[in-house]
Each structure stands twice: as C-alpha cells, then as structure tokens.
Amino acid sequence: MIRQITLTETMRAALRKGVEDHKFSHGHALVLAGGPGRGGAARLAARAALRAGAGLVTLACPQVSLAENAAHLTAVMLTALPDAYTLRGMFADTRLNALCLGPGLGAPRALEMVPGALWGRRATVLDADALTAFEHDPGPLFNALHDKVVLTPHPGEFRHLFPDLARAWEAGEMSKIEATSRAAVRAGCTVLLKGHETVIASAAEEIAVHSATGEMAAPWLATAGSGDVLAGLIVGLMARGHSPFEAACSGTWLHAAAARQFGPGLIAEDLPDALPALFRDIGL
Ligand SMILES: NC(=O)C1=CN([C@@H]2O[C@H](COP(=O)(O)OP(=O)(O)OC[C@H]3O[C@@H](n4cnc5c(N)ncnc54)[C@H](OP(=O)(O)O)[C@@H]3O)[C@@H](O)[C@H]2O)[C@@H](O)CC1
Ligand SMILES: Nc1ncnc2c1ncn2[C@@H]1O[C@H](COP(=O)(O)OP(=O)(O)O)[C@@H](O)[C@H]1O
User: Fold this and answer.
1) Broadest EC class (predicted)?
2) What is the ipTM of this complex?
3) 99 is a domain residue
C-alpha cells in the first residue's frame, strides 16, 4: 500500500516532548562537516536537527575549520574530528545515537568517514557528498549499508548510485515509486528520492509519497541548501527515536510545511527557524 504523507495524530504525538523529559531523552545527533569555507551545508543540517527536537547536536569538523564554525554556532556544539579512527572512538558514548554525513563534507572526507560511520551502526542519514563520493566505486558503500540508514538523493545523486533504475525511470519504463522501492531493497535501507514529488521506500517495502503540488505546493524549496536542511530534520527525528522510515516521512512533511509557513522569499536558513511557529500551529 502506498501511503500519502499528511500530518497524522501519530506523527504529532511523536513530535511532542514530555514534561518529565531531559535532553538525553531526545538523543544526540552528530553532523559531520568538511573543510574551511564549506561549513554552511552542515551547519544548516545541524540547526535543523536541533529545531526538530534532538536533545543535543554536535557538529564535527576538521581542526582547521573549528574557528569558522565556532563563529556561527551557539546551541549546536562543536568538536574537532580529524579522522575515521577518532569517529569510531566516539561510539564509546552510547548516547550518541544518530549521524548525518554528506552536506558540505567533500568527497575525500566522505570516502574516509562514511565506512567509519556505518561501522557504528547508528541511525544515519547519507546525503550529498556521502552519496556522490561513491559514484565510481559504490561497492564499499553498498557493503556497509544497514537498515538504520536513510539515503536522501536528489535525482542526480540517485543516477550516480542506481544508474540502471534511474535510466528506466527517466525512459518512462518504470515509475518513480518503483525505482525508489527497488533501490531501497537493493541498498537494504530507506531511500528518499527528492523532488516536488518525494518518494520514500524502505527495505521492508513500505512506500510513502509526498506531493508538493496544488494546496501543498512548496516551490520555494527549490533553493540551495534546502536538501541539507531535510537531512538535518531526518537525523534530528531519528535521534529522538523515530524509525528511519517514519523520520523520513515526518521530516519530509515538516520540510514542506515549514516552506509553506514561511512563504515566498524563503532561503534554506529560514526553514529551521520556521519550525517553532509551525509546531505551535499544529498544536504541539
Ligand atoms: N549553503 C551551502 O553551503 C550549500 C552547500 N552545498 C553543498 O555543496 C556540495 C555540492 O553540492 P552542489 O549543489 O554543488 O551539487 P549537486 O546538488 O550534487 O549538483 C551537482 C549536479 O547534480 C545534478 N543535479 C543537481 N540537482 C539535481 C536534481 N534535482 N535533479 C537532477 N540532477 C540534479 C546536476 O547535474 P546535471 O544533471 O545537470 O548534469 C548538478 O550540476 C555538497 O556538499 C552540498 O551539500 C549545497 O547543498 C548548496 C548549499
Ligand atoms: N519545486 C519543488 N517543490 C517542492 N520541493 C522541492 C522543489 N524543488 C526542490 N524541492 C525540495 O528541496 C530539496 C532540495 O534538495 P537538494 O536538491 O539536495 O538541494 P541542496 O543540495 O541544495 O540542499 C529537496 O528536499 C526537494 O524535494
């Protein structure tokens, strides 16, 4: 059965915070960032994760990027992360329960960090450079993927990882839903294929569609960095304990609803900051 993503009472209930909760009740998300001058995308994702309600969010960047990121971050915490060995060491903290890799990461750092991140078997979003870095040799990525992962490709990134499915979809031989569903089964994880119609499929063959058309149109999402925000929303929700598929569905709904709430003129950094008013409007 194909689910049309709308706001449900279950989704609303899962977004609430309980009166007796503390920050660790809502998880700790780690967002990896790349080198100097490339930190914007990861900061967008980190801010979105915190606004989505993750209890703690840490941005992990190379030593050389600390000063740049420190100048931009306050509630989001910051740590230096030189290499994958150090990343593996961070998994000793079992409270660190969700990861986001890709936005602004750069291909060399993605090739090193993605296998290290997947080794930790935490809930993980892979987006942008964490997908394109494996374009020429996807084997190491596919061998390491697990069922707590959400891949969030736009159609160009989808083409890099699943060229045969993308070709069949683009040639009209296969629907977007079928292409996404086959990709999820092949990858053994959740796949979210972006666009004004976003399709989400899990390896267990759950399928959901969000159509941003008609009254639900959100054309101002066609702006640089809005995908980085979506990755952050999903990792924030997974830190809070949502399953990968549910986090992808709720994140997609929140992303488009926040864009509609803000309206024309939206740029990516407006999205996380539109969430408080949206949360009030939906009665959280
Ligand atoms: N504020 C910041 O710091 C921001 C930082 N960012 C960071 O920059 C890094 C690289 O990201 P990017 O945007 O340069 O590369 P990307 O989106 O892969 O485009 C490359 C090619 O892919 C294609 N393509 C793209 N979209 C498509 C679509 N919908 N449907 C189909 N095809 C599509 C298209 O190629 P074509 O198909 O036209 O040949 C395009 O030329 C990455 O780390 C990211 O996180 C950005 O997020 C922006 C905000
Ligand atoms: N016309 C549109 N209507 C609704 N959503 C859109 C539209 N164009 C783009 N989006 C959404 O905006 C986001 C763009 O992500 P992406 O292409 O990865 O951009 P970036 O890499 O700049 O962050 C995706 O979530 C996509 O579904």
Assistant:
1) lyase
2) 0.96
3) yes
Q: Is the CB of 129 under 6 A from ligand 1?
A: yes
User: How many CB atoms sit inside 10 A of residue 213's CB?
Assistant: 11
Q: For a pocket test of ligand 1, which of 228, 255, 267, 270 has the largest count of ligand atoms closer than 8 A to its C-beta?
A: 228
Q: Per the domain annotation, does 19 fall within a domain?
A: no
Determine if ligand 1 sits within 6 Å of the CB of residue 156. Answer: yes
CA of 143 to the centre of ligand 2 (A): 28
Helices (H), the chain: 9-15, 40-51, 66-70, 84-90, 107-119, 129-132, 139-144, 155-161, 163-170, 176-187, 226-239, 244-262, 270-281
List the domain range (segments joined by +) for residue 6.
2-14+25-281
**Number of the ligand 2 atom closest to the C-alpha atom of 41:** 23
Please tell me the total count of domains within the chain: 1
Indicate if ligand 1 lies below 6 Å from the C-beta of 155.
Answer: yes
Q: What is the mean pLDDT of each run of 10 residues along the chain (284 residues)?
A: 95 96 96 97 98 98 98 98 98 98 98 98 98 95 98 98 98 98 98 98 98 96 98 98 98 98 97 98 96
